[in-house]
Amino acid sequence: MQFKAHKTRSQHQLAIKLRVQQPAKSGMLSWERQRLLIHAAKTALAATLCWWLALRFGLHDGYWGSISAIIVLQSNVGSTVTASRDRILGTIIGAVFGFSFSLFGTLPWNYVLAVLAAVIVCGLFGLRNSSRLAGVTITIVMLVHQPGPRWSLALDRVLQVVLGIVVALAVTTLIFPDRARLRLRDGLAQEFLVLGAFFEAILQGFLGAPAENLHALREDALAMLRGNNQLLEAARNEPSGGPGWREGLNLLSQFGRSIFDALVALEFSVKDSHHDRFAQQLEPALGKLVADIHRGFQHVAGRIHKWRFDVEPRRMNLENDIEQLEARMDQVRHTGIEFSQAEILRAYAVQLHLKQVARLLRDSRVETSRAVGEIQK
Question: Of 43, 208, 279, 341, which sits most exposed with the smallest number of CB within 10 A?
Answer without folding.
Answer: 341
